[in-house]
Design goal:
Elements lengths: L2 H19 L8 H6 L1 H10 L1 H17 L5 H47 L1 H24 L5 H9 L5 H23 L14 H30 L10 E6 L3 H12 L4 E5 L5 H5 L2 H18 L15 H15 L5 H6 L3 E4 L2 E5 L2 E4 L2 E10 L3 E3 L27 E5 L3 H13 L2 E5 L11 H13 L3 E3 L2 E8 L4 E7 L7 E5 L2 E4 L3 E3 L6 H4 L22 E3 L10 H17 L13 E4 L4 E6 L2 H6 L5 E6 L4 H5 L6 E6 L6 E8 L2 H4 L1 H8 L4 H5 L10 H13 L3 H15 L2
Parallel strand pairs: 1-2, 1-6, 2-3, 6-16, 8-9, 8-14, 9-10
Antiparallel strand pairs: 4-5, 5-6, 7-15, 11-12, 12-13, 17-18, 18-21, 19-20, 20-21
Helix pairs in contact: 3-4, 3-5, 4-5, 5-6, 5-7, 5-8, 6-8, 6-9, 10-18, 12-13, 12-15
The protein binds flavin-adenine dinucleotide.
Length: 716
């Protein structure tokens, strides 16, 4: 604790100790003051201003130091200053004293409590930012909650001091009035408890709940108002219409059908959406073939003197189509029809919040789930539109391996594509504007991936921005500028094909969102609330079209919330839970993550300890010639509570599952350490990491005792 803080704490503690040591509480007892009412009244009459000032200061001091006595002082205020002046004096003094206590608590403890209970405080602060004033008002109105506790606890939260002051003033006023009024009859009061009858307390509680109830009513009225211009059908054709049959839409429609709702799923292109047709499935199939080729060409690592991996690129692409074909039945019209979903092929357009057209057909519906996905973002770089550029949408139609391939983008998709094509034999140049690949990951992770890429012959160009594309009969060229303007340089790369992998944009145009005025986020995705509802209470969105995470498993996760909230929101709605979201970039080594990494922790000001384990020490990794990478786990300082884990390794995407489970269910590293892992497996890396954490946290005094005990045993 800093010196000024220690001083403030010291003064406060001394004052409180003195209060109890000198038994000053006796002066704040009801019977004591009742006995001196005449004296006090006479003094007030002789020196009204001084006595008001003294009473005011005393009141502020007592509340600021959270000492008992405020209630009796309130009664005395009524008894000696009367209802009006007593109320004014007590109301202002109690607010100032409460705010002083609030500020002292904030100054002394907020940082320390925030550090100790980071995630819980972050959640509380989020709630306080949205509803803090309402909660405070309720707490203030109900005199059952001790005011001094409210002052101290609120000081630990993010509520603004001015908000605290004004809301406290308003919220405490009714109770102040009641007590000051009772104080005007102070001589007749037997006990403090007799002032507040159960009826009065119930009235205050009702008054306290009013703002919360009012807010909920306002939200419902707003939701109704936005729907008002649209005629609500007397009878609906469907309970739910889902737009888009990708990862999100498939799960949403299935859930609807499983709960016996009448559901229609509309898809304009291919069932399975991006993941099956142009995303996860083809990219993982391509990476697997590329890995097989790479391993065959480096057979010497496995003691194979010569191995040649001859292949025809068109066969590789045929294999990818075969893989898609094998997965396709899982997402097919037949399967979903059998599950009870009506699958319609066509372009859906939202005509009103209650009506969707599918080409020429119109269907009325109670709820709509938008799961229209996203598409590759292609920036308007001069000359790019003159070139037949590739994206993850059309890459899979290639029949010949490009000799020279430029990949724009150093994110997960750009990295996976670069490595796959390089391993198949293309000369790949990967261009990234940022100073690192995989910018969301920690520097050491990016560095590991970069080193692997460079070892495998990929030319990685960082800090470079593509500014122009040129094409002549003989050459295709991308012109790049260095990002650092002071040393602006121009660099050119020739290529046969270019892949644009610069992120993805939500599909929000052309199907009715503009006409309904549905709000969008700054990045162009659909804006939803915590229940995944759009501006319209019966229109929900999930998956890439709303984000913020663009993964298949998150799309499916969101689909549950959107569907359940849509169909059953009248009973209960569920706020989408993003607390434990894992993901993986399927390069070799894979980069998998859940929760915080060091970058996030630093950005959010969260204290952590890092425990890492190098995979090159792992027996199975050595045997498999994959002895590279690491496990990095962030824990709460001094505790084994997992804040996040990153694994850079072969099969990292599978290995991370143990940490995902642990985080989801609050299991610490100790639990992982005490779990038997099969030898020899890569999963042992998780246990070894937990072991490293344990070794760093064994109390040295315990070891010293053990050493002494063993020494003693040698002689007995
Ligand atoms: C190359 C690549 C690799 C990827 N790898 C992975 C990975 O390994 N793991 C992972 O988790 N994620 C991965 N992703 C991301 C993943 O593919 C997406 O997060 C996921 O597909 C999103 O699902 P979705 O349902 O939101 O959208 P989509 O799958 O895009 O589905 C949206 C569907 O809506 C349809 N649609 C749109 N508008 C209309 C309309 N008006 N009427 C009717 N239909 C309409 C579209 O035709 C489309 O089929 C990858 C993506 C790419 C591009």
């Amino acid at each position: 604790m800093s010196q000024p803080r220690t001083l403030v704490l010291f003064v406060a503690v001394c004052a409180i100790v003195a209060f109890y040591f000198f038994d000053l509480g006796v002066y704040f007892r009801l019977d004591y003051l009742q006995g001196r009412q005449a004296q006090l009244t006479a003094y007030v009459a002789s020196a009204p201003l001084q006595s008001a000032a003294a009473d005011f200061c005393l009141y502020v001091l007592v509340t600021a130091l959270s000492l008992p006595g405020a209630l009796v002082l309130t009664l005395v205020g009524g008894g000696i200053f009367g209802l009006i002046w007593g109320t004014i004096l007590v109301s202002v003094a109690s607010t100032l004293g409460a705010t002083a206590a609030f500020l002292v608590s904030r100054y002394l403890f907020r940082d320390a409590v925030g550090r100790r209970f980071q995630s819980r405080m972050a959640a509380i602060d989020k709630g306080i930012v949205n509803d803090g004033a309402f909660y405070l008002f309720t707490l203030r109105l109900v005199p059952l909650f001790p005011f001094f506790v409210i002052n101290l606890l609120m000081g630990l939260t993010a509520i603004k001091a001015w908000t605290f002051l004004f809301v406290s003033q308003a919220g405490m006023f009714p109770a102040t009035l009641v007590f000051v009024n009772a104080g005007t009859q102070i001589a007749k009061i037997d006990s403090l408890g007799s002032i507040l009858s159960p009826g009065i307390i119930a009235s205050f509680a009702a008054l306290g709940a009013f703002p919360l109830i009012a807010r909920s009513i306002v939200a419902r009225v707003k939701a109704r108002r936005i729907l008002k211009p649209y005629a609500k059908p007397k009878r609906f054709d469907r309970n739910l219409i889902v737009i888009g049959a990708g990862s999100a839409g498939l799960v949403s429609s299935y859930l609807g059908a499983a709960t016996k709702a009448r559901v229609t799923l509309v898809e304009k292109h291919r069932m399975g959406g991006d993941c099956l047709n142009t995303g996860c499935v083809p990219s993982k199939a391509l990476l697997r073939t590329a890995k097989a080729v790479f391993q065959a060409r480096h057979g010497e690592r496995y003691g194979i003197a010569s191995s040649d991996a001859k292949f025809d690129f068109s066969d590789v692409m045929d294999r990818i189509k075969r893989v898609i074909g094998a997965v396709e039945p899982h997402d097919s019209v037949e399967r979903y029809t059998a599950l009870g979903v009506e699958c319609l092929r066509g372009e859906a357009k939202i005509l009103t919040p209650y009506c969707v057209s599918i080409d020429d057909r119109k269907l009325t519906t109670r709820n709509i789930v938008i799961a229209a996905g996203a598409r590759p973002f292609v920036p308007p770089i001069p000359g790019l539109d003159q070139i037949k550029y590739l994206t993850s949408d059309n890459l899979w139609d290639l029949r010949e391996l490009p000799r020279r391939l430029v990949v724009l983008g150093g994110g997960p998709i750009g990295c996976e594509i670069s490595q796959a094509f390089a391993r198949l034999g293309a000369a790949v140049t990967q261009i990234e504007m940022a100073p690192r690949l995989l910018m969301r990951e920690d520097e050491v992770v990016s560095a590991t991936v970069l080193a692997t890429f460079e070892r495998e012959g990929i030319t990685v160009e960082l800090n470079l921005r593509a500014v122009e594309f040129r094409q002549t009969r003989a050459r295709k060229t991308v012109v790049c500028e260095t990002v650092d303007r002071e040393t602006a340089d121009v660099v050119e790369f020739d290529f046969d094909h270019v892949v644009v992998a610069l992120g993805r944009r939500a599909n929000v145009e052309g199907y009715g969102l503009e006409e309904l005025g549905i709000s969008l986020n700054a990045n162009g995705s659909i804006k939803t609330n915590e229940f995944l509802a759009t501006d319209y209470a019966n229109i929900y969105a999930c998956g890439d079209v709303t984000g913020p995470y663009q993964f298949t498993h998150v799309a499916a996760h969101q689909a549950w919330y959107a569907t359940v909230n849509g169909l059953f929101g009248g009973f209960k709605r569920f706020a989408v839970d993003y607390s434990v979201i894992p993901w993986c970039t399927f390069t070799d080594p894979e980069v998998a993550r859940v929760g915080l990494n060091e970058l996030d922790a630093a950005e959010q000001g969260i204290a952590y300890e890092l425990t890492s384990f190098a995979i090159d020490e792992l027996d199975r990794a050595i045997a498999d010639e994959v002895a590279y990478g690491c496990v990095r786990v962030l824990t709460k300082p001094g505790k084994d509570t997992i804040l996040g884990a990153t694994i850079v390794a072969e099969h990292a995407g599978d290995l991370i599952a143990e940490f995902v489970l642990a985080m989801k269910h609050g299991l610490g590293l100790g639990k992982i350490l005490s779990t038997i892992h099969i030898y020899p497996t890569l999963a042992e890396a998780n246990k070894h990491t937990a072991g490293a954490w344990r070794r760093a946290h064994i109390p040295t005094w315990l070891l010293a005792c053990a050493a002494r005990y063993h020494r003693w045993q040698l002689h007995h």
